[in-house]
Amino acid sequence: xxxxxxxxxxxxxxxxTALLIAAASPAAWAQKAPVPDAVAQTKVEKSAADWAEARIxxxxxxxxxxxxxxxxxxxxxKSMRENAASMKVHIEKxxxxxxxxxxxxxxxxxxxxxxxxxxxxxxxxxSFEKLYTILSPEQKTIAxxxxxxxxxxxxxxxx
Length: 159
What we know:
Helix content: over 70%
Radius of gyration: 17 Å
């Protein structure tokens, strides 16, 4: 597998993850009433954190990470958690303001989200590359399939 195809696969995964966070969660959050107190805010934060943790756990299980690979995996998981936290700020802003935004405001916020996503890509890539290089051939095949499926779903949604 070439470096470009690894980068493309990783990009597809992170884009898919960001799109899921950006598209699905805000729609659900936007339908709820504004958060009136700290307890309700904690629930929103917990659900976003739970979603990220579930995604990390699923990838860990799918890739069959071994004890020897765990340190490299923890770097990937840390990047994913940090990326989810940074995207959460933009998602909450979108959920809070989307109904009242002008077209220009919406485009500007989407631009900010795309920039944040690009930063997340740059942050995740080195840790995932480090992990990918120590995966077994079978694990690499699984990783390639996981990322390919995300790419397939992304393209099929537009059809």
